[in-house]
Task: inverse folding
């Protein structure tokens, strides 16, 4: 079955610096790769996603890159702010016509942004 | 606000008991999935329902079962509770290519 590895498990940066979180996946049939932000005691919230027909996607300070050949994808946060502090999860799934219920998650990265 | 609501938000059970967790999603969200998130871990896929039928299951024993109803609500049932079942249980509905999570039900098994 699919396995998703995520690194690092913790990441501490100064406000204004960039943060990069990396994930690898095992199932070459996976074609949907979302990233979630989870604050303490809250539900995971989708922050950005990418499908295998593109290599990069940006949304303001957040970007995701995908390398299908190497089976890895990364989250890049620029100009970090203290409110970016949270646990970030990557996930992978086979997307069947818009249904991505079967997400396989990484173990998470706890990001701390110091003011 | 995702339009996905779960109940109860917190509950405590003892080993061997049974529990039912409930989820309600928006009209038109035909797919619902359930995840278990242990403390400090990523969510783990339990199973998925589409139009009231299970159409995918993760590595969970049969004592984890579910139902989906025509009114876009669903249930997760866990029998013979074990200590390791203590976790946050998340319900998620899928619509137009996006997954919407509820706030979760935190189950503690003593």
Result:
């Amino acid at each position: 079955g699919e396995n998703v590895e995520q690194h690092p498990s913790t990441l501490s940066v100064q406000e204004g610096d960039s943060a990069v979180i990396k994930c690898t996946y095992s199932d070459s049939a996976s074609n949907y790769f979302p990233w979630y932000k989870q604050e303490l005691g809250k539900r995971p919230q989708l922050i950005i996603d990418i499908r295998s027909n593109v290599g990069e996607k940006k949304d303001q300070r957040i970007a995701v890159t995908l390398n299908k050949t190497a089976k890895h994808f990364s989250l890049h946060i620029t100009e970090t702010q203290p409110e970016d502090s949270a646990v970030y999860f990557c996930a992978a799934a086979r997307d069947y016509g818009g249904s991505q219920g079967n997400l396989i998650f990484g173990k998470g990265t706890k990001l701390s942004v110091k003011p | 606000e995702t339009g996905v609501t779960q109940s109860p938000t917190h509950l405590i059970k003892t080993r061997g008991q049974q529990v039912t967790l409930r989820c309600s999603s928006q009209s038109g969200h035909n797919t619902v999935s359930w995840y278990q998130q242990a403390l400090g871990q990523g969510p783990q896929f339990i199973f998925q329902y589409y139009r009231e039928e299970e159409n995918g299951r993760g590595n969970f024993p049969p004592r984890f079962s579910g139902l989906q109803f025509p009114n876009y609500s669903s249930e997760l049932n866990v029998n013979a509770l074990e200590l390791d079942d203590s976790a946050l249980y998340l319900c998620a509905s899928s619509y137009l290519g996006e997954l919407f999570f509820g706030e979760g039900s935190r189950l503690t098994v003593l």
